[in-house]
Amino acid sequence: MGDYEPYQGDLFGQVRSNDDFRRVLSTTRHTQLVVMTIPVGGEIGEEVHDGIDQVLIAVEGRGTSILEGQRRPFAAGDVVVVPEGTKHNFVNDGDGPLRIATVYGPPDHRPGTVHHTKADADRDEADVPPQDS
C-alpha cells in the first residue's frame, strides 16, 4: 500500500460535525477525501482544476452550484461531478451552513490540510507553490 493508509469512518457524521471551511480526511496517490463547510452567504470561490476531477456531495444545507456559468440548486442529497477544466463555484444562499463531502482525483491539497476559513484557504493556496505529482 505504499505510504498511504486506508481510511474508514462515519463520513456524514464527519461532514455534519465539521465547522472548518476545508478539512482533508484522507489522501492516497489517486484520490483525496475532504469535508467542507460553507457559511451562510459564503462560497467556495470560482476555480478550475487542471488535471483533477472533483465529486461534491451535499450532506446538509442548500446552495447553488455554478458550472461554466450555469446555475442550479445544490442541496442535501445532491451530487455534482466536476470534470477537469470545468469552471465551477458553489455558493451557500441558504439559511444554515452548507456541508459538503468532496473527492478529488488526483489529490488537490496537502495531506492533513485544515483551513478554518476561506481566507485561510486563499492565503495558503497563494503561498504554496504547486506540488509535483
UniProtKB/TrEMBL annotation:
Pfam families: Cupin_2 (PF07883). Residues 104-133 are annotated as: Disordered. Signal peptide: none annotated. InterPro entries: Cupin_2, Flavonoid_dioxygenase-like, RmlC-like_jellyroll, RmlC_Cupin_sf. Residues 107-121 have a biased composition (Basic and acidic residues). Residues 35-104 form the Cupin type-2 domain. This is Cupin domain-containing protein. It comes from Dactylosporangium aurantiacum.
